[in-house]
Automatic annotation (TrEMBL):
Superkingdom, taxonomy of origin: Bacteria
Recorded GO MF terms: transferase activity
Keywords: Transferase
Coiled coil: none
Protein name: Glutathione S-transferase
GST N-terminal domain residues: 1-81
Statement: the UniProt record of this protein carries the keyword Transferase: yes
Location of the GST C-terminal domain: 86-211
Signal sequence bounds: none
Length: 214
């Protein structure tokens, strides 16, 4: 069965993208240009009616939602250690993955796309300003996790949590949050980015790691 990942540069799809590379998987990367609204083109909506990346296709299976995709890849490539294999360590990693996906990530959506939450332009500015401060606090929680990383967020192997941390910290730069203000996360993210497998995903997406502009 052939694997295909629909992704957009710099988007949350970096999590499965780098996970596929870490697993050494053979897959077809399919670029979706969000700024050109390709996610709302009829051909793409036929694949994912929610008009979002990422989508993982494995033969006849179409899988969406990052936690589900990560669990699927973890099951398919157990030796990669994208998540801890069992026990409380696995439960804790899933706890953090769910929180990154259902709390930190949507908070950034309020920063980046406040128009999703109100049509009122003045209210959009207020939503964004408030969300930046909430986001700063959430990155602070990731910083506390990074301070305890041993050496990666879910233990001895780099995996999905480190990939999400990279994505979320990078987005912080767009929100005016200096990655240097979160030194443990920034060090972890740079170590993760330097792994050859992760570097391949970064290169394919042409990502600049630090997008903070003073
Ligand atoms: N909960 C979804 C979130 C997916 C998501 O927010 N994708 C964003 C990119 S980070 C997207 O495709 N946005 C395009 C849009 O909403 O138009 C998941 O886990 O996959």
């Amino acid at each position: 069965m052939s694997l295909k990942l629909y992704y957009a540069p710099g988007a949350c799809s970096f999590v499965p993208h780098s996970s596929l590379e870490l697993a050494g998987a053979t897959f077809e990367p399919a670029l979706i240009k969000l700024h050109k609204a390709e996610q709302r083109a009829p051909e793409y909506l036929a694949i994912n009616p929610r008009g979002q990346v990422p989508v993982l296709v494995d033969g006849d299976e179409v899988i969406t939602q990052i936690p589900a995709i990560v669990l699927y890849l973890d099951g398919k490539f157990p030796e990669a250690g994208l998540l801890p294999a069992s026990g409380v360590a696995r439960t804790r990693a899933l706890q953090t993955l769910a929180w990154m996906n259902n709390t930190v990530h949507p908070t950034f959506t309020h920063v980046f796309m406040p128009q999703k939450f109100t049509a009122d332009e003045a209210a959009q500015k207020a939503v964004k300003a408030h969300a930046v401060e909430v986001y700063r606090g959430l990155l602070g929680e990731i910083e506390a996790l990074a301070q305890k990383a041993s050496p990666w967020l879910s233990g001895d192997k780099p995996g999905a949590l480190d990939a999400y941390a990279l994505t979320l910290l990078r987005w912080g730069g767009f929100a005016g949050i200096d990655p240097n203000s979160l030194p443990a996360t920034w060090a972890l993210v740079q170590r993760f980015a330097a792994l050859p497998a992760v570097a391949r995903a970064i290169e394919r997406e042409r990502l600049e790691l630090n997008v903070f502009k003073g």
